[in-house]
Amino acid sequence: MSTDSKPIRFTIGVIAYNEAANIEKSIRSVFIQELSGFELDKVIVISSASTDGTDDIVKSLMGEYPKVLLIPQIKREGKNSAVNCFLDAKETEIVVILNADNTLGNVDSLKKLLEPFRDEKNGIVGGHPVAMNDPRSIAGFASKLEWTMHHHVALRHPKIGELIAYRDIGTRLPLENQSDEDLIRMRIEAEGYSPVYAPGAIVLNRGPETVSDFIKQRIRVNIGQSYLIRDGDYYNPTRDFRMLYGAMVDAMKELGFHPVKLFAAVVLEEYCRLKAKAYVRRDKGDLNIWDPVSTTKKL
Hints:
This protein is α/β, with parallel strands linked by helices. The protein has nine helices and eight strands. The protein has helices at about 25-30, 55-65, 80-90, 110-115, 140-155, 180-190, 210-230, 240-255, 260-280, and strands spanning about 10-15, 40-50, 70-75, 95-100, 105, 120-130, 165, 195-205. Helix 5 packs across helix 8 (about 240-255), helix 5 crosses helix 9 (about 260-280) and helix 7 (about 210-230) packs across helix 9 (about 260-280).
């Protein structure tokens, strides 16, 4: 256990592609954080060939927040390329990845995400995504259920996703893959570090609001996970039936028992997994660059 009382320095990477509707809210959520014991070095925004005014919004914020730095990528090469660009530009060991369509939910979200690094055995920490969807629709309920179950799975076995912090040990991501959080976690664990889940590190996101968008997103995510399962020694707790069953029971306690919507959500997810398996079986290649799901961009 580290006893060093010096503030822990860290850098935030904000990954953006055409996020004019969300980027300002995301960045401002960083600068209201209470960070006693931690020191923010920079917020580096990697804008992957954005064409909607994202870059202009970031530039306008740079005058207000001198720690904000914009690095535009001329060509869009996928999230892994953007993460690599961020890692090559930062100067601290501890890094945080924040998606530009998310906002930090509490003023102590970052502090709770970073606290585990006081123990030198910990190498990667996942935050607690909270979906802002209205659960009255099928897609809204399915999105809410997905992230509520994600939380309860992570309480049992750290599930890293959506908001992460980690020690940069020199890992750079392959450009042909997606699933950046899982690839980073696997490599950090291979070096002997432990993963940690920080349930108090709230990050707000929005899942798909229509059934067609839910299917589009979940097929893409499942393709990435299916490639990891096929090509590497990858354990995904969300593929463990016993883990999922317990998480679903706990999620129902939070969301209430809605049998029709629950049945629909399970059928949708299983359909997406089957489609992803068929895609990978034909080996059509991981989706390292994907079309954004428009209904997730309304935070």
